[in-house]
Amino acid sequence: QVQLVESGGGLVQAGASLRLSCAASGRTFSNLVMTWFRQAPGKERELVARITWSGSSRYYADSVKGRFTISTDNARNTVYLQMNSLKPEDTAVYYCAAGLTLATSRPAEFPYWGQGTQVTVST
Questions:
Q1: N or C, which end of the chain has less CB nearby within 10 Å?
Q2: Predicted confidence (pLDDT) per residue in 102-118, tens digit
Q3: How many angstroms separate the Cα of 101 from the Cα of each of 2, 42, 67, 84, 122?
Q4: Is residue 97's pLDDT more than 90?
Q5: Distance from C-alpha of 111 to C-alpha of 26, rounded to nearest angstrom
């Protein structure tokens, strides 16, 4: 099993920044693909960013490209999502998930999830 614990959410004004953290523990997870999803009220869960532990492969949704940065700290077994220039439409619960391959993108394909952290961006 892999345990994922998110932190760093909060309430901020538009234009501000937040950094989300996802601490991983449990079985060997260095071969897993770490991914951030978000889900706004009444909407489907969407993939925001994805990274391999080596950092050699990264992906961003078009809606966050240029504003969000995903990174890993292997010494701390932690994945970060730096969110800059936040917009009200970024308001959602953000989830950290671990997938088995880079080909996985649908939430149902991810076996490991954190509990989520709320991000609220006000105007």
A1: C
A2: 888 899 999 999 999 99
A3: 15, 28, 25, 28, 35
A4: yes
A5: 13
* Cα–Cα distance measured from residue 85 to residue 98, given in angstroms and rounded to the nearest whole number: 26
Q: Which two tokens stand for residue 21?
A: 């953290």
Instruction: Please compute the mean of the pLDDT values over residues 71-81 and round it to a whole number.
Output: 95
User: Residues 6 or more apart from 33 whose CB is under 8 A from it?
Assistant: 50, 51, 52, 57, 98, 99, 100, 101, 102, 104
- Identify whether the C-beta of residue 115 lies closer than 8 Å to the C-beta of residue 48: no
φ, ψ (nearest 5 deg) of residue 90: -85, -5
Closest CA to 64 of 42, 89, 43, 39: 89
Q: Are 16 and 8 in contact (CB under 8 A)?
A: no
